[in-house]
Amino acid sequence: MLDYIYAVLHSPTYRERYKEFLKIDFSRVPYPEVVKKFWKLVKLGGKLRRLHLMESVKPLPNMANFPVPGTNEVEKPYYKPGGKSGRVYINAEQYFDRVPQEAWEFYIGGYQPAQKWLKDRKGRALSFDEIQHYQRIIRALQETGETMLEIDDEIR
After folding, report:
1. Nearest-CA neighbor of 85 among 100, 74, 71?
2. Cα(125)–Cα(136) distance, rounded to whole angstroms?
C-alpha cells in the first residue's frame, strides 16, 4: 500500500490537479479501480522509494563523470548546458560532465538537491566518496523524473 501511495503522490498530474487542495488539507489518495494498474503503480512506487533512499543506486559510467584532476574544492557551482546534458562546474577547472539538465534543475519540495548538495559544501574539497555520492544523486534524480512520467502514464 505504501508504494502505491508513494507512486500516486509523485504523479505530476495528481500534483497539478490537487495543488490548491494539497496546500490546505491532507492528500487524498484515489482508490485503485483496476487491479493491473494498482500493481503497476506499486512497482513504480517501490522503485521511486528505493531511489529516494539511495538503495542500490550506482554511478553510471556515462553520467556525471569527474574527469579533471585538481583540488576538488567547491567554489561556486554552476551548470553549463551542452545539448541533452551539460557540465556542473565546482570551480574554474573541475566539473561533473554529462549531467542531465533535468537532474540539475529537479525540485524536491522547495529546493533543488543537485544544486543544494554542492552549495552546502562550498569552501570544502570533495573526497572520493563524496564525488561518487554526487554521481549517485544525479542518477537518482534523473531516474526519479523518468519514473514520475511512467507513473503519470498509469494514472491518466
Report:
1. 100
2. 18
